[in-house]
User: What shape does this take?
Amino acid sequence: MDSNNFSKSQKLLDLSQRFRQSKSVSPLSNAQPHQSESFKRPNRSAVLICLFEEGDDIYVILTKRSSKLSSYSGHVSLPGGRTDEGDTDDIRTALREAEEEIGLDPALVDVVAVLEPFVTKENVTVVPVLGILWNKQAFNPVPNAEEVESIFYAPFEMFLKDENRRQEEREFQGDKYLLHYFDFKTNNKVYVIWALTAGILISTASLVYQRPPDFDLRMPKFWKKSYSRF
Assistant: This one.
């Protein structure tokens, strides 16, 4: 990247510094999941929460999955996927999948933290990797038609606001929890962001903006981890 072509956002610089110094997330210097047995276990995935600034707002990159996929077809998701044998850690998984799915060059992404994992009902471990796209203009989205129907950007603070949001109560093994649905319209399309993707975004937005959401969270206990600090 040519540093003369763009200036780094002060808001994101502050965020980057705070996350790198934070003890509440996994510092990159200590994050070596490739050295642990847990990284190589089956059913492990990583997703990339890639943030950039436009105007005065921070945005996150999201995708709508292809209807051709056998699982979660048509759902909104973060770029990411299952760990491959060649992956050395969760960062590698998230960046590799983002490049394969949306054409995001890993060199453009500044990874600032590996967040605590979520665990699904199917016992899949999902690790959120937080990265910053300093130069949005350098990103030329190329959706993989086999996996991605569309790419869009949502204002990140939206996931803390009680606007365009619905909820549904569910129960699992005696635990009653809420599923949150966010309806987001952009480019004359309405995207519904819900389930685990919404949970990860709410949790991470709470960390980024250092405040809880404006609504009752009550996430499922089996998701565990990041949101429990708020």
In short: The longest strand covers residues 175-186.
